[in-house]
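To: structure desk
From: M.T.
Subject: fold request, one chain
Message: Could you run this one when you get a chance? Sequence is below, nothing fancy, just the single chain.
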Amino acid sequence: MLNRRHIRIKVMQSVYAFKGSESDALNKDQKFLMQSLDKAYNLYLLMLSLLVELQKKSEDHLSKSMKKHLATEEDKNPNRKFVNNEVLQFLLHNEALQDALETNKVKHWDLDDEYVDIIYKDILASELYADYMKTKVSDFKEDKFFVIDIYREIIAPNDKLFDYLEDHNMTWVDDFPLVNTTILKMLRKLKPTANPKVVIPDLYKDEDDEMFAVDLFKKTILNQTTFRKIVEDRTKNWDSDRIADIDYVLLIMAICEIIKFPSIPIKVTINEYLEIAKEYSTPKSSIFINGILDKYVKELQEKNELNKTGRGLM
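Reply: Done. Structure tokens follow.
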């Protein structure tokens, strides 16, 4: 689920928050980093379980309508197309999902059901819902497209939901776009005969990615004095107060990758940190960072000190 850029962002936040020195034990800070990465997985489960709760909300609404004292014919014989949506049913009865929710103790909607209600009412008021409910029957394909549409158009952009997630866990703000992309990608690939475990992705693509997070954090912190000196030597004409703190962090992380990670191509490293700078730092930061890194790489090449192995890594 996590890609390398998101891992770099999490490491950036941990390095930025680090207040110790190179000689300090990193166990506590490393634990915080790994917990931050794990919480992205919890957010994925939480958002997926929201779809289940919406189905339950609809079922409950229809049940109460049928029991009304002055129930109309429509109340007594409601359109159950939303309730019976095959994708929502697949999630509702998915044991792999239920086990993951239980294991990770993701039960937020039990206490914060009002947010489920907000989303449910927005769905009922939407043209997407009106068009979908014009008929009483559908197939898996139509059901899937409907769930994708309401997730993309109603759930993901909901400001109240976003505020709730931000208040509950600040790191989820950065995880939200990744989680939404992962869920939509999963839904698009979903088939009626899919293995239930298809909805539960691995947090890391492989062990290398998990180790990359730990190694990048440790090597950046343990060599930060050296890396900062490299930056300072190449910014002597700059007032240090003019260099954003986040730019320093991105530069020393990029230099760490260039020096300490021989299998990562130079272009990949530079491009990744330029993109992160565009999102997290000042408008001119990416130009500044690119200039420093480009100059430093050329110096290493001239001295034949660029330690990169494999083809196409320059």
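Reply (cont.): Residues 27-66 form the longest helix (40 residues). Let me know if you need anything else for the meeting.
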